[in-house]
Amino acid sequence: MNKPLVSIVIAAYNAEQYLPRCLDSMIAQTYKNIEIIVVDDASTDGTMTILKNYASKDERIRVLCMEKNSGAPAARNKGMKATKGEFMTTVDADDTLAADAIELSVNMMIADPELDFVLYNLMLVESTPSDSPRITPFPINPKVKKTIMTGEEACYWSMQWDIPGLGMTRSPLEQNMPEEAKFGQYGDETTTHLIFLKSRKVALGEGKYFYYQNPASYTKKISTKRFEILECRLSLRRHLLKLGVDDRMIKRLDVRRWRELIGACYLYWKHSKTFSEEEREDIWERLNYTYSTLHFNELPLTEILKPRFTMMPTFGLFYWQLSIVFRLGLIHTE
Question: Whole-model pTM?
Fold first, then answer.
């Protein structure tokens, strides 16, 4: 029996420090019928040299280039359009897969034709002062009792990331996502939620994905792009409403949006002096607008009546209240 082709898509930007580790783990896969599509996002370091070297030694590696630096989601989207595989997975340029990760996932897909998304056994890798990194399994919510669930159930649990979001899908699912869901620094997350929803079945797999927690990633840098997450979640909400999901899922997402707004307020409060006046005005407008879109009457009272702060008639008053809480050191989150 012919083994189905698996497409692995990697977006790389200034990844010379980690890229060889990533590519070595792809080449070492026990499942050999793979294509490795790496999209260079206009790197300015030695990333392209490394890619050309690896591609010259392994014909399964294809290298694509972005004309200008556009961010990982846009680079991955370019790679996805070039795939030929029946199954698809994405891997960050600083992450790795266990040698049997692809094989274990493919076997599950073949065994159940209705299985559209097999999640990796996500391992969080944290650097330590010693040579040995600290590796911990992703904390799946104990309330998730099923190893195989419906797409709607998986989407519900993903609203607050009670299950991991990285895995292998049947290619048409990735390729048929709305274009507007794929862009922006947090577009990948929106796409993942929607893939869950469109899946017939989603499984918690055994193949290990090693997720290296990189302090230099865009999600950690102090930048106005960090606040794009607010618009990303609102976009997801609109998509879900359009698709007619039940109220439980929307409410679960709104709790997450509420918590992320508080985190964004703390980020702004702590680092406001690093932003220009124009940037501060833009961020304030984003925070204010997000506050106006929250439906407080639908949030659990345990969320909006926190011991140290509560909802207010206007965002200005809400932020003033939070700033006092932050100044007293009663809460800090980014």
Answer: 0.90
